[in-house]
Amino acid sequence: MNVVLDEMIGLETDGNDYVFHVPTSSFYEVDSTILKAMETLGGDQHHHEDAVVPALEAGMDLPREDIEGLVKDLVGLRLLVPQELRGKPAHDPVPPGEGIRNLVLHVAHTCNLACGYCYAEQGLYKGKATIMEPERAYEYVDWLFDQAEDDGGELGLTFFGGEPLLNWPVVEATARYARKKSEETGRKIRFGITTNGTLVTPDIAEFLNEIGALVTVSIDAIKEKNDRLRPYNSGRGSYDIVMERTKPLLDAGIAVARVTVTKVNLDVVHTVETLLAAGFREVGCSPVDAKNEAYDLNGADYERLLAGFQILVDRFVEEAIAGRKYGFSNIMNILKAIHNGHNKSYPCGAGIQMVAGAPNGKMSLCHRFVGEDDFVLGSVQEGGLDKKKRLQVLDDIHLDQRSDCSTCWARFICSGGCHHVNFLFEGDPSQTYLTHCDWLRAWYRTGLEAYSRILQNNPAFIQQFIDPGWVCAN
Amino acid sequence: MSRIKAINVKAQKMAEATTRDVRGYAFSDCCASFAPGWEVGTQDDSDPCPWKSDLTLCWNTCYWMGQVPDHLSYPDWFDECGNVNSDWRTLCTVPDNG
């Protein structure tokens, strides 16, 4: 049998060496002996299994017994594998679960803002302005509770639009209905809402706080830049009114901010700092994908964005070492993924654990695919999801279908990227949109460095904020 | 394993596994296909299992008991079976001693 070192990437942080094992997303700190052994065996060089120990004996100044132990460790950790298994994932294919746990409810296909980059075309989703009737919303809730397996896991209901607060009576009534259903069935449900913040009132804030909703407020920058990106239909800016009206949410500590990053608002450090200081619990940034040159980022823009992210990550690490959490969502998310060793064949739960429900009763792969007939997976009035259609779509967008990803070290983390971005730019969700790739790999490397620095200096932070059940082995 | 330290949850799980990851080694051959054979392969790609489809040899030589009982624990398993093709029904079910 021939063996070979499995796919890995190495990095050095503060004088310590690490390797990240691609097929399992395992992360190891290694000493110079391991690095030397890896160098001696060569990256993708094949060796007969009986030739490994002699090769290391010849290349390293170590007793045979130690070398045998070292090889045993590499084999045990799956870092040295039979050649045919190199790069193969150790995880099982993600089974498309029978039940959907998270429903994104499009309660309003209309919006009072006119953001130029909006993928939903100001909330219309290729249709006419419409709002969801309460009966339809109750049907969706009944369906959610009926079809999801009862294994003790939480259900999730997110109110979405357009602007969901344009249909506030239905949001409120549906949340009450779902809460009652939760009490009757004993199944837990959590609520979320994504809003532009312009229509929040103290009563709305109080209700959202009462039901424990996580409120995501879309806001892109500070003052003028935000106003340029997120104007009302009249052209008037929205920043001041959003900051004024979301105050009760900020006081209650239930609001996070979502920043869509475009060419216009690349100064993310200033935006994140200012919004955190204003009272948002966390701030997350996401590059826009509008297929519009006025907004979409190019190579130099991504470099600038990454430089801004690096400043925020350094701040995050500094605070983490001091035992405090800095609310930069992007790094929190990636630290959780690295800590748990996320390793998957789909980039997100779309179609697997989550679907979106439109006002007309049609259910789509995710909220971004609403209005695209090819990605309708069923209808809430007509028996729920079409099993065959769902499996066919999930098969089509599986990582194995993406030949462009087959040699990328980040493939089991990114899994080919957002289905909708791929669809928008490539016309097919199974074709990876490669513009993001360099940026994503650099960003993930930044995350690995941050994780190792925090673990080296204050492992208790990981235990406290990333994984409360985890016991540090250091 | 002092030279290499598992630092995230996934790495710790890998380190806690006492032996080779059998599932990881097995999926490319007999475990998935239900064809008796050595799941790792001993002769490179040309013939991953020299005893493929030969149940007797597989039973006697394969260390992994996923497909057939291991020879040491169940030395009598094959005794009543003169010919696998015709007498396979005489192969007994391995008792669950667990």
- What oligomeric state do these chains adopt? heterodimer
Global mean pLDDT of chain B: 59
Contiguous low-pLDDT stretches of chain A (5 residues minimum) are: none
Main β sheet profile of chain A: 11 strands, mixed
Largest interface: A-B, 40 and 29 residues
User: What percent strand of chain B?
Assistant: under 5%
Shape descriptor of chain A reads: globular
Structural class of chain B: mainly alpha
Radius of gyration of chain A: 24 Å
Q: In CATH, what is the class of one domain in chain A?
A: Alpha Beta
What pattern of helices and strands is seen along the backbone of chain B?
Answer: EHHHHH
- Percent helix of chain A: 25-40%
Query: How many strand segments of chain B?
Result: 1
How large is the radius of gyration of chain B? 17 Å
| Helical coverage of chain B, percent range | 25-40%
Strand percentage of chain A:
15-25%
Instruction: Report how far the terminal alpha carbons of chain A are from each other.
Output: 36 Å
How many domains comprise the coordinates of chain B?
1
What's the CATH architecture name of one domain in chain A?
Alpha-Beta Complex
Please, how many helices of chain B?
5
The SS-based structural class of chain A is alpha/beta
Quick recap:
Chain A is of the alpha/beta class and 474 residues long. Chain A has 17 helices and 17 strands.
What are the salient characteristics of this protein?
heterodimer; A: 474 residues; alpha/beta; Outer Surface Protein A, domain 3; 11-stranded mixed β-sheet; 3-stranded antiparallel β-sheet; 17 strands; B: 98 residues; mainly alpha
Task: Explain the overall architecture.
The complex is a heterodimer of chains A (474) and B (98). Chain A is of the alpha/beta class and 474 residues long. Chain A has a domain of 84 residues: Outer Surface Protein A, domain 3 (Alpha-Beta Complex). Chain A contains 17 helices and 17 strands. Chain A is globular. In chain A, 42% of the residues are buried. With 98 residues, chain B is mainly alpha-helical. Chain B has one domain. In chain B, 29% of the residues lie in helices and 3% in strands. Chain B is built from five helices and one strand, in the order E-H-H-H-H-H. The longest helix of chain B is centred in the first third of the chain and has 8 residues. Chain B is rod-shaped, with a radius of gyration of 17 Å. The relative contact order of chain B is 0.10. About 37% of the residues of chain B have low confidence. At the A-B interface, strand 4, helix 3, helix 12 and helix 16 of A face strand 1, helix 1 and helix 2 of B. Strand 4 of chain A pairs antiparallel with strand 1 of chain B.
